[in-house]
Amino acid sequence: MKRLYVVGIGPGDAAQMTIACRTALCAADTLIGYTKYIELVASLFPQKKLLTTGMRQEEARCHKALALAAAGETTALICSGDAGVYGMAGLVYELSPQYPPLEIEVVPGVTAAMAGAALLGAPLTNDFAVISLSDLLTPWPLIEKRLNHAAAADFCLALYNPASQQRRDHLRRATEILLQHKAPDTLCGLARCIGREGQSASLLTLAQLADAEADMFTTVFIGNAETKEISGKMVTPRGYHLD
Q: Which of 77, 166, 190, 222 has the fewest beta carbons under 10 Å from its own?
């Protein structure tokens, strides 16, 4: 059966790739992905055929991967983090009816919320929500609505895509919404370049978050009312009654 793997390679460090991820990449004839993601795996699979596409070419990338697989070339479409969390898995399935039948296998990976949380401590131990601040595909009013409801319910939050050159004020605007529901001293964290060169992590308050430096390589964590700092780490209690 013709096969297309849609593979989450984790945040970037080869050590954080799952065994299933490596198995799929080894089984593929061709690896295709955004240029930056292919660069992360190229040295691990020097014998593979590598194809790259630029930013905002997601649909073309998925069409190419589907076409290669339909032609009989076992293909792995690479996504950072998890293929189903802001990755290409959904788009592949949406486009797949345009191609002859083929086996699509989604291979999960470690998404930035999980890897960043581990770097900061344990901020997501209780209920949490993941929200992207990018309005390229989701209208900003809908993002605002989701922020309002998640904050009102006192979820811990992981914010993806907090800022870019075109969206410099989105994190500030998001923080203003969160401050309507959460205390200014709510503990927050920033995790940047997770699993890659230049990795960093820092803690700050929600009041400080509006002016924090962040970019597309940053994942932002906002605690709930119970989140606290323990030995320099961001920790959200699960609710155990400790002696």
A: 166
